[in-house]
Amino acid sequence: MSAILIEENIVHYEALGRGKPIIFLHGWVGSWRYWVQAMQAASTSYRAYALDFWGFGESAKEEKFYHLDCQVELLDQFMNAMGIGKVALIGHGLGAVVALLYAERHPFVVDRTMFISLPVETKSVLERAGSTTPTNLASRLMEQSTVTANTQKEILKTDEAAIQMTMAETEKIDVLDVIGKMETASLVVHGENDPLSPDLDLGSNGQLPTMFHHIVFNQSGHFPMLEQTSKFHRLMQDFLDLPSGESPSQLQLKEEWKRRVR
Known about the structure:
Elements: E1 2-6, E2 9-16, E3 20-25, H1 36-42, E4 46-51, H2 68-82, E5 87-92, H3 94-105, E6 110-116, H4 125-129, H5 134-141, H6 149-155, H7 160-170, H8 175-180, E7 185-191, E8 212-217, H9 224-227, H10 229-240
């Protein structure tokens, strides 16, 4: 386990690979751990980091740090401690909200962003979540097939107050307004059956600026990276391989490679 002190409190993180830096940011269910496969896929060409937000996983449980602004500041302080300059951010759920706010505030630091399961209709986040207790929220958002024993243990480490506070503050954000002001190359990814963003299609009604692109996983819920792993990794790699400053508007989901059997 790797950890650093920020604000005199422990922040847990893990890192794999070498190359340009990527930071994976977890959501409201679990911790850094469900990023392991994505980190392994990215680490062949990049230096992949994943950290636990305040109140999650092995990071400190201090309620005064649970505000969204504190989570965004945690990311900034983490990057400074690691000596990370230009970075790619890949965030899911809560992590997508943090990545969005960070990219808005630090546009020259963020090279590109991948927002997975970003709640767009934020005013109903708490209602759609149904519960802020870690186990109840997990049962609503996470397919049972994706809940490994290790992931289940991580869910139980979450402080409910961290979920409650960050969801409540997310409801105050106008996500489409923030997106409309951004020029960072960004890919927005949703599962068609995500309870927090059901039936969302941003690609057909002109809601996204030129540097944004929306892709929907038709057979996924809130965790497309766990439910359709191979397809997600191919999309992630294609996005990361784009030249800096290029719009991801031409990216498409690709079918998984199939071995030919003679």
